[in-house]
Every structure is written in C-alpha cells, then in structure tokens.
## 1
Amino acid sequence: MIGFIRLAVLGVAGMTVMYFLLSIYSRSVERERLEKEWDERHPGGGDAEARDAYIERGMQEYERSLRHKLIWLVYVLPTLAVLLLIYLTNRT
Amino acid sequence: MRYVKWTLISLTVLIVGAFLHYTLPQHDIVRIVNTYQERQDLNDWTRIFWATPDDQSTGLINRDVQFIQAVKPNGKPMVYRNEDTGWNWPPYFKFDTANLQTKAEDLKSTAENPKWVVVTHYGWRIVFLSVFPNAIDIEPVEGPDVTIIPWFNIFFFVFLGILFLVLRRMWLQFRERMIDPVVEDVSDAWDRVDERADRVRGNARGLWARFRNWLDTWRGRPRI
C-alpha cells in the first residue's frame, strides 16, 4: 500500500510538472503565432493598443480551444499506460 | 579539460546505458528444467538486486524467493528469480509470481523432448554476487530459432526520443521568448555605454585605446 501511495504521489507530481511546462509552452507558441499574424497584416506595425487587444482576444479564444484542453491528456495517457502495463504483466 | 569532459560524458553514457540495460525487458529462449524456492539473506548491499514485493519486506533480513532453472539452446544454464515487483521499482507492476511459478512448473521439459519457451525478464545474472534476473512472463514458442520483436523497447525508445525533442523545443521557445530579448536589451545598453566612453576618450587616446581599436578590427569593426 505504501508503494502504491508513493507511486501515486510521485506520478501526480511528475504529471503536474509536465502539465504546467506544456501549457506554458503551448501558450507561448500561440502568442507568438498571434503576434506574427498581426505583424503580417500590418506591415507598418499598426496601433500598439489594437495589437495588444487583438493578441489578448486571440489568447482568450485559445483558452477555450480544444488544443488547450488536450493538454489534460498528460494526466490521462500515463495513467492508461500504467493500467495497460498492469494488465499485460498479470494476465494469464 | 577535454579529457575531463570526455570522461564525464562517457561515464554518464555508461551509467545511463547500464541502468536501461538492467531495467528494460529482455527475452531469452530457454527450456525450463526445474523450479525451487530458497531462503535468501537480504542484509548486505546486494539487497538492491532483490525486489521489495510488499511493504514489510523492506524490514526483513531474509525471506523465501522462488527460482526458475532453465537451459539455453546452447546448453548453458540460466537461473531466474521470480519475485513480485508490486508498485515499486522497476515499474513492471508484477503481482502474479505464484501464477508464473505454476506456469513454469507446467512447462518443464527434458533435453530429449524439449518444450521451448520465451522468458521475458529484466536484470542481470551475476554469478559472483548471486544476482538473478527477475522473470516477468513465460510463453511457449515453436522452437529455439524464433525471432522476437522487442515491441516494448521500440515504443519506449521512440517515446524517450519524442520526450527529448519536446523538452528541447520547449527550452528553445523559452530562450527565444524570455531570455534573448533580455540579453539583447542588456547588450544594447552596454554598447551605448561603450560608445559614449569611446567618445569621451576620443581626444586622449593612449596606447591602450589604440590597442583596443586594433583588437576590434578582428571583430569586423572599422578603425576609428
């Protein structure tokens, strides 16, 4: 039982670290994409405030998107992998 | 310095490689000849090679361990231990030791009438330290020459490669977005300070300034 608790605690800790790293990375990529999109449409730079508003709106849209929610798979997939391993090792 | 660097790199590769070689599953084609159970002392450093099948086993100084004796197609003997790994390291989640022992018992055969099996196991056989690999699974096979594709290891290394690439990409993104702009700001500011100092020094150019000027030509800056 102690072994199980240790595995669960370490596993959740590891997956949480990975979750935060991935969401920071994904957000950063999305922001960069929005910035580049704006700069492409406004070769002169455009209005700085409008640019910020555009990026902010894009980021809010991203928060609701499927890609953002898919990061939760970081918790789902390793758990499924462990269940699969338990099944494969102990089936008769 | 170069020797130190290469020694450290080869040591790291060696340790990581040995660790993976010990921990990842391997397949042997053998013929099972017998099984036995023997009390093992666990009170010295070779304890690290034995599993901790349940919580109380961490406190025991000896306990019974089941073994599977086998013979390889080339006639050499091979002995496996058969222990639960439970929820502990390595993460095989093996709980079916008793079933596996029964299976091994059932597949016993003689040299005259061999029944070949593939034993999936991890660990090393070190004769001098009485270290045995831990058998994970036993499956009957056609003969001693069948090809076994190590699917688990293929998936594992592909996954490890993907993980490495993802982490590298993350780091590059972080550097591009967070570190580079700061460094650029700092180096811009530094350049401005440098320029002003050069201007102030302009009239009173000594040997040092001229030397620095000459050094700068190596970095592609024109001589002032």
## 2
Amino acid sequence: MTEGWRHTAKPFAWRRSLWIAALLTPALLVMVLFVLWPLLSAFRFAFYEFNGLRPSGFIGLENFRKVLFEKPYSDWTWNAFKHNVIAFLALMLFENGTAFLIAFALLKALPGHRIHQVIVFLPVVLSAVIVGFLWKLFLHPLFGLVNQLLGLVGIGAVPWLGNENTALGSILFANIWHWLGFPTLVLLAGMQRISKDVLEAARLDGAGDYALMTKIVWPLIAPSVTIVTILTFIGSFNWFEIPYVMAGLTGSPGGSTDVLGLYFYRTAFGSTTTGIQDFGQGSALAVLMFVFVAGITAIALRYLRRREIEQ
Amino acid sequence: MRDRGETIRNGAIQLLLAGNAVIMIYPLFVMVASSFKTNAEIFSSPLSLPTHFSSANLEKVWTETNFVRYLANSVGITAASVALILLFSTLASYAIARYRFRLSSLVLMFFLSGMTVPLKLAIIPLFIQLDTLGLVDSYLGLVLVYVAMGIPSAVFIMTGFLRTLPRELEESARMDGASELRIMWSIMLPLARPALVIVAIQNAVPIWNDFFFPLVLITSDNLKTLPQGLTVFVGEFTTDWGVLFTGLTLAALPITLLYIVLSKQFISGITQGAVK
C-alpha cells in the first residue's frame, strides 16, 4: 500500500515542483539579470580602473580617493552635495510645509474639496521633462510668464535661471510645483485616519483650528510625516530630471545648480564640456550615494519611528 | 458668534485652496493657450488669449518633427513593460501565495528586497550588461529594465492580494479535476482584477514619464520616447515658442486625459506605489 502510494505521488510531486518553478522563473530571471547582477557589479566596479567599457585592473580605493579628495573632482563632488542638501531642506520646508497646510484645509471637507484634490495632484502625473521645459519658458527673462506677471506690479525683469543666486531656487520652485500634490495627499490620507471621535472631543473642549492642527493633527500623523520625510530625502539626493532639463548637464550657471545626479551622469557617460568619461569614478560616486542615502535613511527611520511611538 | 468665526475660517480655507488651484492650473492654461498663438503673439501679448485658433503650430509639429514617432514609441514601450510586469509578477506571486514550498519565504524576501534598490545608481553595470547582450539602443533592453524595476512592488501587492482569496474556490475546482493552470487562469486571476489595475497604473505612469533610462540606453532618434524626444524637439525649435508650447501640450495631453477619467485610481496607485 505504502509502496503504491509512493509510486504515484512521486511523479505528482515532481510535476508540482516543475509547475511552481515555471511560475517563478521569468520574474526571477529578470531580477537576477537586471537587478541583482548589476547591483553587485556596481560595488565591484568602484574598485576598478576602466578602459572604455571594460574594467581593466583592480585599484583599491583609488576611485573613492579621487572623487572625495583630489581636485578638481572633490570640488565638484562637494559642490553638488551641498546643493542636494539645500534642495532637501528647501523641499522639507516649502514643499512639505505647504502640503501640510493644504492637507489640513482639505481635511475640513468643505464644498469642492474633491476637485481641489484632483487639481493639486495633476502636475504629479506629468513628466519632469514637460514640467522642466514649461517652467524654463515661463522663467525666460524677457518673454516668460513670470516676469510678465511681475512686470504688471512693477517689478523689473529677473534673469531667474541665468543668475547664480536665483537659479537653484527657481529650479526648486518648479520641482515644488510638480510634486506638491504628492506629500499633500499622503499627509491628507494620514489625517483622515485620525478617528472622528478624537477630533470631536477636542472641538468640544474648545480647541480652535490652530490648537487642533498643532496639538492633535500634527502628532497623530507622525507615520505619514516619516514617509514624506524619507521620500523627500531620497528624492533630493537622486534629483536629476528637472535640473538636467532646466539648467543643463553642467548645472549652469557656473555650477550653481549642479547636483550629485548630474555630476554622476557626467562622470559616467561624459559631457561635451569636460570630456571626462570614467566608469570607475562613476561607480565610486554611485556607491557613495547609495551608502549615504541608505545609511541616513536607516538612521532616520529608527529615530522617526521612535518619535511615532512616543506620540 | 461662533458661527461667524466658523464662516470666516472656512472662507479663509476656501481662499487658500482657490489660490493654490490657480497656481496649479494657470501655468497649464497658458501652455495650452500659447499653443494656438503665433510666435509674435506670444512675445507681444503673452498673457492674453489667442485672437484666433491657429493650427499652424500643430501642423508643424505633426509634419516637421518626429513627434508622432516618439509618441508611438512611448505607447509601445509602456504597454509592453506593463504587460510583462503584470504577467511575470502575477505568475510569481501566484506561486508564492497559493502553494506551500520550501524556499517560498526566501523567494518572497528576494523580490521584496528589490523594492529598496535604486536601479538608477546601478546604471553603469546595467549599461555594460545590456551592451554584452546586444540590447543597448533597443526597445527590448529598455523594456527589460522597466520590467525589472516594476516586479518587486508588483509582487508585493499581488502576493498580498492573492493570499486573501478563499481556498475553497481553488479546492472545489481541484476536486472537479481542473488542471492547476486552469484554476489559476480562469478561477483565481479574474478575482485579482482590482489589484492588477493598481499595479498597472503604478507602473505605467513612471514608465511613461521616465527620462533617465532612455537618455542612457537609447541613441537612435527613431527609438526615442516622448520625454526624451521632447529634448530633441526643444533643441530644434529653441526660438519658436508656439511650436514648443504645442509640443508640451501634446505631450501632456494623453496622461492628463487619462488622469481626469481615472483620478481616483491614479492618486491611490501613485501614493501607495511610493509609500509601499
């Protein structure tokens, strides 16, 4: 009896395994070929010298030393890094700050709040290339919409993208316009999860809108704030499209809008102005950016999660 | 007294929202309006409405540029990528969610860890890999990269969803002698439609809008996608703003229309997609 059972079960078990393997294979194969292998190679390549497209010799930490400490590379690296930090701080303050206010306004669910949700999220679905070019035209010193409107109230023409002091801010503005709806609706979703009873109770205790916002809503949406902060951080340090479109590959004028994404791209794939193309140094930059972002994200997550629990 | 305060506060809130709506919509309105204007009209009176609806810019975009080609490429690449993401990740999720097997949790972990990988930073080895396979400057190479990027979160969503489906359905079909393939295809997957829609939108929007990977991987003008093609287009028509605004309007049009129809699914798909 047991013998017979074994004889029939075995081919079945074998067919079952084959079926499961067949289901898994396509996805696994793509992941191994185009995620796992490139990722492992990315770390390896950072320690190699390159001759065109192929690694030619192991050189230890040389690529890292160059991008971090040898001029002019180190100057470029730190200059770009500084702009990423500025971008992160500016987006936290202006983009997420505005998003919080709008989300709080939407939470009231006054007439028309649904159409406002759709409107604020509309630019999010557009390509950064469209948004970048659109604002580049609008920020044109002579014929752009922005200066034309400012001219109506008597403010003279400002060369927004041509001046080192205003270029980064202008690009950040376009970025905020593009993405504002995203943190807004993530924060709104967090606010909508607060129980109605809590809000009612606070109201009955005589809490005004301001007290409600700072004492009740802000602490209770800590998990959404964590998500928005982390995504803003990752986004700020992977920033590429809008600066590329609006300020070009070299972060003009004078490198005042250069960010790590642009610098990495120039190093890896070359640019017409610098003429340098180095996969080794590019890989070192990529590894540094990855380690930095992953490391800070991990630390920040621990800190922010603890904050969520305390409140 | 309290009511009056409430009215004033609500008025202030409506004002804030209306102001924000103007800032969001007005630039897009000017973009569309400018696409009907001549260059001279844009420069002399940028804020006014077009005096007459001229289709000259549209004809120029249609006949003198590769715009239609870029559009078709974007449609094809997005459709192929999303289809393969849905197919591959549904198959894998089905195996993980509906069968017990030894390495199941390890396989799931492998897929999920892919969600944390910024594939852009692995672009150098990815480029070399595709070069070795002869897939640089081809549709297939770009599609495979998008599929690899989309699978992890798709597996995450699909596995979670497929696990919630009741066992009884599957078992009664098995009793009736249905094959595993038939059970999956005609009984289980039709029930997974809502999750499939979320996964499709979540992947279609970033792929449709992507600029970085085509920039690195595609060099032939005939293979370029819409966002990448726009940069070519802007380079050619630098001073012809009427044509530029028309190009931007046309590029924004398909996804905007789709968004207006499916705004609820877009919003939940995109916010969930990044939040995970």
